Amino acid sequence: MVSGPTQLPLGIGLRDDATFANFLPRDNETAVVTLQQQSEPGGESFVYLWGGSGSGRSHLLQAACHAASAQDQRALYLPLNDLGHFPPHMLEDIERLDLVAIDDIDRVIGRERWEEALFHGFNRLRDANKRLVIGASVAPRQLNVALADLASRLSWGMTFHLQRLDDQGRFEALQLRALGRGMQLSDEVTRYILHRGPRRLDELFELLERLDRISLSAQRKVTIPFVKQTLGW
Asked: With 92 labelled, which of 36, 114, 122, 129 sits at a CA distance of 20 to 30 A?
């Protein structure tokens, strides 16, 4: 079906920067540790993560796939926000994989074919002793699942409500991401970007990538004047 986590159906791949090392756990440390320990003896076979935009849910699902790949395991990331309008054929034979990460499951709940495919896929993964991580914007009990057996399965395993970062957490996350890119981002510049930039972390990280790319090309340090000029602020 697939040969690794970066060779996925319909061209959906993993972000290179969506790793555990690039994630600031803060109040979500237990969820992160649980995912990191999934492949160990006694690790959780099924983990359900839920949280709204900016909670880091998609980042963690992809990080789990990266970690599995680093251990020469086969992993698959399925963001149903992008793939949910297709029939659920992509769930066939998923038990051949070591880890399956299904994001945005709430996008297909209420659709009979998808609910049945998810139920049977869940059972096959369990019977094969493989691992499953599911991401959604709401808790399992809030999904309004039509298929009772699937609703029961989704209540198994460990469920974590991911907490968004506060302003200090966003500051630390931006500096952590800059450090991972080899950027020198002073506290002053970080505060300026947070003050003038978007609230969403993913959009902030996109700005950071743009600043890094242009600063390297121009061989200039990332200063407040450079940020103003580059971003038109």
From this structure: 36
